[in-house]
Amino acid sequence: MAKPDPRPQRRAQGELETQVIGALRKADAPVTAAWVQERLGGGLAYTTVMTVLSRLLDKQAVTRKRAGRSFVWSAAADEAGLAALKMHKVLDRERDRRAVLARFITALPEGDEQLLRDLLDRAADEPAD
């Protein structure tokens, strides 16, 4: 009989970022990294929480403000906004954006394709800032 693996199960890519954003969105006001760490539980190291918050700051998905000798953090994007930021990051790494977008669109299920068309039509009708 095999021994159980004592290591915690590895999260899917982006899952921890999503959990951090979710915790920040539930907060009534800007919060500390320690507050986020406490809400996430699971023995997560403070340094891990700080790394995730810093990466989200680089992606403009969170904001931070000095509070005494540390920072307080707020969500700047919801889960959909974070997913959109990830999509932009993928597109920015590719040389042929047109090919990537074309492949993405042709692989969409029919319902999503129509939703995208509706959203693009609505965006085209909105006045530019």
Automatic annotation (TrEMBL):
Protein keywords: DNA-binding, Transcription, Transcription regulation
Keyword presence, Cytoplasm: no
A UniProt-annotated Pfam family: Penicillinase_R
Superkingdom field: Bacteria
InterPro entries assigned to the protein according to its UniProt record, in alphabetical order: BlaI_family (IPR005650), WH-like_DNA-bd_sf (IPR036388), WH_DNA-bd_sf (IPR036390)
Transcription regulation recorded as keyword: yes
Residues spanning the membrane: none
Family stated for the protein in its record: Belongs to the BlaI transcriptional regulatory family.
Protein name per UniProt: BlaI/MecI/CopY family transcriptional regulator
Organism: Streptomyces cylindrosporus
